[in-house]
């Protein structure tokens, strides 16, 4: 495909920016001007990654004739976009959760990754691709959580903080998976050729290690921000919901 190398270069450059700004935003104090500014750069870089990933799907599907790769990339792009959109809108709509769930972007972020997960799960189960199977469950769980939020509304006053960091961790998974699976590919080849580490483990590590780390980070942040509310705090959330 004409321009394919260019799109790959842009995709990779944006990935480097996303990786740097992800950790930079994490190090700055939450809500500070630096945190917000760097976080915006991260989300813009991720948006560019999603857009520049479309030609990669076209290349895999129509020029390299790799339907499985094309399907998985088609699945990953909306999944990445979902995380970034929710991270952004959880902050902009923090005072009006009903406005958030009424946005067309919410519906798209809720439904599209979940629908694409179905063929990915089916292909993964038939071919024994555990990476396909494992990642297919992520948007299905996201769908359940988003649907529950629509039906019950926020259960705590800082719901937007919880939703924001959970979505940002999702974006971080995408960033680190790309870095480990693409940029670190020579290291994995060397490891496969010179050590006794099973190839299956080497292939799975770049995909599931970021998920495991993000899960642990989510547990830590959950203890900090997602604690059970007191009766007084719950009444404040209920009162604010009634006034919306």
What report would you give on this structure?
- Helices cover 86% and strands 0% of the residues.
- By secondary structure, the chain is mainly alpha-helical.
- The C terminus is likely disordered.
- Helix 2 packs antiparallel against helix 3.
- It is built from ten helices and no strands.
In short:
It contains ten helices and no strands. The protein has 244 residues and is mainly alpha-helical.
Features:
10 helices, disordered C terminus, 244 residues, 86% helix, single chain, mainly alpha
**Amount of helix:** over 70%
For the residues shown, what is the average pLDDT? Answer: 90
Pattern of helices and strands:
HHHHHHHHHH
β content, as a range? under 5%
Uncertain residue segments: 230-244
Could you tell me the radius of gyration in angstroms? 19 Å
Overall structural class, as computed from helix and strand content, comes to mainly alpha
Query: End-to-end distance, in Å?
Result: 51 Å
Total helix count? 10
Largest sheet properties: none
Number of strands: 0
The geometry reads as globular
Which SSEs are present, and which pair or pack?
Elements: H1 4-27, H2 33-63, H3 67-92, H4 97-102, H5 104-127, H6 130-152, H7 159-183, H8 185-194, H9 199-225, H10 231-243
């Amino acid at each position: 495909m004409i321009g394919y190398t260019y799109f790959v270069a842009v995709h990779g450059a944006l990935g480097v920016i996303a990786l740097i700004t992800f950790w930079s935003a994490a190090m700055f104090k939450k809500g500070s001007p630096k945190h917000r500014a760097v976080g915006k750069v991260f989300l813009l870089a991720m948006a560019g990654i999603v857009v520049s990933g479309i030609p990669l799907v076209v290349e895999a599907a129509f020029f390299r004739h790799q339907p499985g790769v094309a399907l998985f990339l088609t699945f990953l792009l909306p999944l990445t976009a979902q995380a970034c959109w929710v991270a952004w809108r959880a902050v902009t709509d923090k005072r009006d959760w009903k406005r958030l769930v009424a946005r067309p972007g919410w519906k798209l972020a809720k439904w599209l990754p979940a629908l694409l997960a179905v063929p990915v799960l089916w292909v993964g189960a038939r071919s024994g691709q555990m990476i396909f199977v494992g990642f297919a469950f992520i948007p299905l769980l996201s769908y359940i959580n988003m649907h529950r939020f629509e039906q019950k509304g926020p259960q705590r006053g800082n719901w937007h903080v919880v939703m924001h960091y959970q979505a940002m961790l999702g974006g971080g998974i995408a960033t680190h998976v790309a870095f480990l699976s693409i940029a670190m590919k020579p290291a994995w080849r060397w490891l496969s050729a010179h050590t006794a580490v099973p190839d299956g483990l080497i292939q799975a590590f770049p995909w599931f290690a970021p998920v495991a780390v993000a899960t642990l980070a989510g547990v830590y942040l959950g203890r900090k921000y997602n604690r059970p509310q007191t009766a007084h705090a719950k009444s404040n959330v209920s009162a604010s919901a009634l006034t919306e």
